[in-house]
Amino acid sequence: MSAPPRISICIVTGRRLALLDACLASIEAQVDPPAHEVLVCSDGDREVADAVAARRPDARVCLVDRALPGAARNLLVEEARGDLLFFVDDDATLEPHALALLVELADAHPEAGVFGGPNDTPPGSARFEVVQGAALASLLGSGPVRRRYGAHPAGPADERFFILCNLAVRREVMVPFAPELVCAEENAVLSEMSRGGVAMYYDPRLVAYHHRRPTLGGFARQMFKYGHGRGQLTRREPQTLRPAYLVPSLMVLYALVGPVLAVTVHPVALLPLAAYAVGIVLEAAWIAMTLKRLRDLALAIVLLVVLHVGYGAGVLRGLLLASPPPARPEVLAWSTTGQASSTDIGR
After folding, report:
1. How far is it, in rounded angstroms, from Cα 39 to Cα 336?
2. pLDDT tens for residues 242-275?
């Protein structure tokens, strides 16, 4: 058997072939890449194997049926042979020197077990997507996790800095993903590793370009999913909670009761909502000035509010509704040539 690769690139995908192809093309275009392998888990999409083979005939493709992302990634981790497990989303693309830079960081910081950087809006994105990315990267927009969406100084980090579209973990410190979380499974893993004393390192040069949602409805659903996962994680592991994660949920609840209190008790009950509105307008103005387009002000206001309402509602759902642990997903086939194997290793 050949020597194990330095990096195992792990991708979970399903029914997004065009985005997956762009992701694989960015891997194919790496400059002076270290030895690496590509592993893809397809959630119910049988066309993925052929699409992957067209770009990377040596890649391994796993076909499963209805697995949540964490459970799917666990299957890839079990098969990966690299020292560095590099998790990349199917809707993200890498800079040409990303793999070489990852190895450089790992060698320069042997004390660290986790590496990552920001996920930026892809060049050439529509204006709606550019403003969306700016809202996510803003202080009022994403608060303590804004470092995931823009460049910040390199240095030691914690789970607030990282997101799964651009996350590398040394195999020796890796722990399984929580299979029941709809999202935020990386936060559960990183929190567990942090409690175990694993050091983490953030570098803004390790960039992934993450596809933004093209519609307001898609963005709202994404934020709700992010919040849902965070709520599930908080219910599962209360020690992972930071007060800032609850602020959007509290604002959602207050938006419902504030007008009632203003009518039944005193109009001063609307002051918190008024202060929130002023903060949103000021942050949106800052975003518009940063992007040098004043007409982006109204769009930034809408996106910031949708971000908070979607995320806050999602957190409440995750906190209040228990999610039973799913069964281990059944692996229908593994492929290394684009043609599904008849071997069912999931039984």
Report:
1. 9
2. 898 999 999 999 999 998 988 998 899 899 999 9
